[in-house]
Amino acid sequence: MGRYILNRLFVSLITAWVLVTLVFFLIRLLPGDPFLSEKVTPEIKANMMKYYGLDKPIHIQYATFLGNLLKGDFGYSLRYKNRTVNEVINQAFPYSADLGIRAVIFAAIAGVTLGIIAALNRNRSWDYLSMFIAIVGVSVPSFVIGPLLQYVFATKLKLLPVSQWKGFAYTIMPTFALSLHSLALMARLMRASMLDVVNQDYIKTAKAKGLSPFQIIWKHQIRNAILPVVTVLGPVTATLLTGTFVVEQIFAIPGLGKFYILGIQNLDYSLVLGMTTFYGLFLIAANFVVDIIYGLVDPRIRLAR
Amino acid sequence: MQTTGNAVTKEMFEHVGKNISQMEAIARPSITYWQDAWRRLKQNKVAMLGLIIIILYTIMAIVGPYMTPYDYRTTNTAEIDQPPSAKHWFGTDTLGRDLWARTWMGARVSLAIGFLAAFLNAVIGVIIGGISGYFGGKVDMFIMRTIDILYSIPYMIIVILMMVVLGQGIMPLVIAMVVVGWLNMARLVRGQVLQLKEQEFVLAAKVLGASHSRIIFKHLIPNALGVILVNLTMSVPSAIFTEAFLSFIGLGVVPPHSSWGQLAYYGIQAFRVRPYQLFIPAFFISTTMLSLNLLGDGLRDALDPRLRS
């Protein structure tokens, strides 16, 4: 297990290094020199000089950049003096994380349940209904679902608050809109995995031993079928976190996505790049955690590598 | 048992001689792999519905903008935010532009980006995956480790970074999607090639002195084409989604050009008052993605019956 964790850690660190190096060189490809154009005020220029060391040779700039990131410093805004990426993250990330965690949990529980229902009722109406929900969920983007929910449940039926983030009732629609795609993906995967497991020899053995159908399904089928679904938790987290950009915009939630879109609209390159780096590193870390969990629950994985 | 009256007698039989040419004649026309797949696909009503919708939207994307006298770029301050009517079939936007024309011009952009990005990804993925799987050893090791690392960086993060650097527009969108979009296809093709290259027909080609590129492109890739095609179909909706997503957060197609994602982006600004401005593009994005997903599922079943579950 130790070797497996070290191996995964090594890969994650390399990935993180590739990402930040990519960001560093992409900054240099930006059209013109947005950091030192005339529109930028002297204070901000000073910030940029300090953070990027723009007056120094490129290898020192690179070292400065890596050093800053290692200290956990993601840079400055190009538009607002005194606003750092770290402040924006500290202020807004809790909202995004709150929404994201709710969506991950909901997508996992509902998706797996839907997949189980479909697999146990194979080729019957429950199966067709579940898979219909799943394929619609995969096909309809969150920026369609979100406004649709708002229109029906808030504007027309007046059951739920239209937008903002002030309590449980406010979280229902954003969570659902954000998680639908991942929920659908996991439902399809869980169904396929359940149908794969049902033909395995250990299920026959369990039947031969005379276990009740409930015990077979619960202890043998679901437990084994859920393993492949765990692997997609990493990519699903990535999809959900980038999905918050859109959902936060729709439901006026003061999370990172709002600042991200604002940064894009203001051409605030350094803010956008700093936040993108943060997102990238966060997701690489999340993937690492998922890999470790997968290694823990399935010994075959850590032995295979 | 009575057999009189209808007894089987020798006279009732007639000797039929062997007719070699007739024996060898092919009773029914032989069916190729692709004809067979097409026949199976035609029986799948859901997939055919998807195919028909895609063809319909493509035709509309070509002729739709000419069906109305209004231009997709011309603003008209006298007719802003009109609801759908006999005059403006899908209404007008906040600048008085006709939304029917903009929707179908947007269809051109969205569909073109989706198909182009998916196609380029497939071409690059097939070449790299084919080389990796065929040569194996150090080449394979190097390519696969590179893919592993690029794959660990979230796709959307790279696309957004590329868009920030390349600037907005249609070509930057395609380039940004292609930079890392080929990874999946490369992995898939490599797996296929690894399986296929051990088979006898490849050995036969080698014995006959075929070059590496001939074996890869004439023998291995055509045999993997079914899997490639299914993956290609499945990656079109995700490319369309990526375009819509980027346009929606303000990084995609910029006016006066239009795309479905961008129309949805402007539609959301005031959708509680004028829901049609959002729901029309949203309907087309969703039904296109749904149709392509259904078609992809159908193709998978038709091309590879083993995968049917």
Q: Quaternary state, please?
A: heterodimer
**The CATH C-level class name of the domain at 102-267 in chain A:** Mainly Alpha
Give the full name of the CATH homologous superfamily of chain B. Answer: MetI-like
Which series of helices and strands of chain B comes N to C? HHHHHHHHHHHH
Count of discrete alpha- or pi-helical segments spanning 4 or more residues of chain A: 13
Spans where pLDDT lies below 50 across 5 or more residues of chain B: none
Shape of chain B: flat
Question: Percent helix among the residues of chain A?
Answer: over 70%
Radius of gyration over C-alpha positions of chain A, nearest whole angstrom: 23 Å
Strand content of chain A: under 5%
| Biggest interface pair, counts | A-B, 50 and 40 residues
CATH topology of chain B: MetI-like fold
In words, what does this structure look like?
Chain A is built from 13 helices and no strands. Chain A is an all-alpha fold and 305 residues long. In chain A, helix 4 packs antiparallel against helix 5. The longest helix of chain A has 36 residues. Chain B is mainly α. Helix content of chain B is 68%, strand content 0%. Chain B is flat and about 95 Å long. The interface between A and B is large, with 50 and 40 residues.
Give me a quick take on this structure.
Chain A has 305 residues and is mainly alpha-helical. Chain A has helices at 2-29, 42-52, 58-70, 85-120, 125-139, 142-156, 168-197, 201-208, 213-231, 233-251, 256-265, 269-297, 299-304. Chain B has a single domain (54-66, 95-303), classed as Orthogonal Bundle (MetI-like fold), CATH 1.10.3720.10.
Q: What keywords describe this structure?
A:
heterodimer, A: 305 residues, mainly alpha, MetI-like fold, 13 helices, 78% helix, B: 309 residues, 12 helices, 0% strand, flat
